[in-house]
Design a protein that fits this description.
By secondary structure, this protein is mainly α. It is about 70% helix and about 0% strand. The protein has a two-stranded antiparallel sheet with strand order 1-2. A two-stranded parallel sheet has the order 3-4. It starts with a helix and ends in a 13-residue tail after the last strand.
Length: about 425
């Protein structure tokens, strides 16, 4: 009986894992990159060449090189793998992000058990949502998904630490939140901004809840200072090398300063409430919104506020909202929708319809992977990789070249040719003069 009760969870886990790795069986993973990722391999290669010290610039992607100011955690892991397995850079680029995404899926299950210790239905619903919600895998599995995969894992760790701190404030929980905050800062730009914003909310909640008690102020200070100190080897070095404004320009660029006002754009997004536009979009968005309304109606504002905070972050919000969206989905399904079904005739028919709808949603998620595989704009073949290697041997070392082709060719060419490509746009958000 116990095995039968666990069967839906185990099946969800296995299908979620397969969803994240299935594309690896449809390409020559050692010779053909899955979509973009050349720029990130270039980052890792420069870290390796620099003796695992932060490099000043990344060559070949712009005149003089791109200033290296990107959160480096994933690149250090990738650089270590490059050191262990030389000349396997494409295989490493293909394998590492989906493997981290699979690890994140396991971490989400542990978090859900922590959040819903007596509600197995909510655990299953939240786990199902994170396994198949496009936000939780589409950006995390390609070679260029290194930052998103590590950022997603770091955010799960942060959510777990923050939950423990809210449940039992103390010095040790505050320190653990600070460590998780530092991990998010080191993992990706999106997780850095998201965790910093959530830390402000968490600190404000504790200070207000304890009425500005000295102990609460000190614990929040410990949380903030430990997060800043542990991540300082990255951000302090970047600011020393490239100036204090190195992080300002990329952040402002995400908010489209000078175009549509930020709050106007946010209001448009909230009105549309398109958490995802892929796959089983209507059902995902409807149940997530239902969960949000359910919590607000019961004056439980923490999770809706977390979701809306991450949802307000431009560009990165697609994957940043995956975890809180999965939690809202769990509330929408197991609390709000279950209450509606309970008072309706023909509950078995409604439950069966819901099951069939879930199966359709799973199939749509797998269909999204197939669509990513067929996308020719971000596809680089093994034959093209070989031609670029041949061209590298023929070109002068100081050659500056133009590359004509799709986005994948433009993104991979600077690294594979080890020559400056004049017309690539990738990575230029970190270039002050661009």
């Amino acid at each position: 009986m116990r095995y039968l009760r666990r069967l839906p969870l185990d099946l969800t886990f296995l299908l979620g894992i397969f969803l994240r790795v299935q594309h690896l069986f449809h390409l020559d993973a050692a010779r053909e990159p899955f979509r973009l990722g050349g720029l990130f391999i270039a980052f890792s290669h420069e870290i390796l060449q620099n003796g695992f010290r932060l490099p000043l610039t990344i060559p070949f992607y712009s005149p003089g090189g791109i200033p290296f100011a990107y959160p480096p955690l994933g690149f250090y892991v990738e650089a270590m793998l490059l050191a262990l397995f030389p000349r396997r850079e494409i295989l490493i680029a293909n394998l590492l992000p989906p493997l981290v995404a699979c690890l994140t899926l396991a971490a989400v299950y542990r978090l859900l058990k922590q959040l819903f210790p007596k509600n197995s239905g909510a655990v299953l619903a939240g786990f199902f949502a994170y396994a198949f919600l496009p936000n939780a895998f589409a950006n995390q599995i390609e070679a260029a998904g290194l930052a998103e995969s590590f950022g997603s894992l770091a955010l799960v760790v942060f959510f777990s630490a923050a939950f423990k701190f809210r449940a039992a404030p103390g010095w040790r929980p505050a320190l653990v939140v600070g460590i998780a905050l530092a991990l998010c800062v080191l993992a990706s730009p999106g997780s850095a901004i998201g965790a910093a914003a959530l830390s402000v909310l968490l600190g404000a909640e504790q200070i207000l809840r304890q009425r500005f008690a000295a102990r609460a102020l000190a614990q929040v200070a410990l949380m903030a200072c430990s997060g800043a100190a542990l991540s300082a080897p990255y951000w302090a070095a970047a600011m020393k090398n490239h100036g204090r404004g190195i992080f300002l320009l990329p952040v402002l660029a995400q908010y489209d300063i000078g175009k549509q006002p930020f709050f106007s754009a946010l209001l448009d997004k909230l009105t549309a409430f398109q958490v995802t536009q892929d796959g089983w979009a209507f059902a995902w968005n409807w149940l997530i919104f239902l969960g949000l309304l359910w919590l607000v109606s019961r004056r439980k504002f923490a999770l809706p506020l977390v979701f809306l905070t991450l949802f307000s972050i431009p560009r990165e919000n697609v994957w940043l909202t995956a975890l809180p969206a999965a939690l809202l989905f769990a509330y929408g399904l197991t609390e709000a929708l279950a209450a509606l079904i309970h008072f309706q005739p023909g509950r078995r028919a409604l439950s069966a319809a819901l099951m069939l709808s879930a199966i359709w949603g799973i199939s749509q998620s797998f269909g999204l992977i197939h669509a990513l595989e067929r996308d020719q704009q971000w596809k680089l073949s093994a034959a093209q990789v070989e031609r670029l290697a041949e061209a590298r041997a023929l070109l002068p070392e100081n050659a500056r070249i133009l590359v004509l082709g799709n986005d994948a060719l433009l993104e991979w060419a600077p690294y594979l040719l080890q020559r400056e490509v004049l017309n690539t746009q990738f990575g230029l958000e970190w270039q002050p003069d661009e």
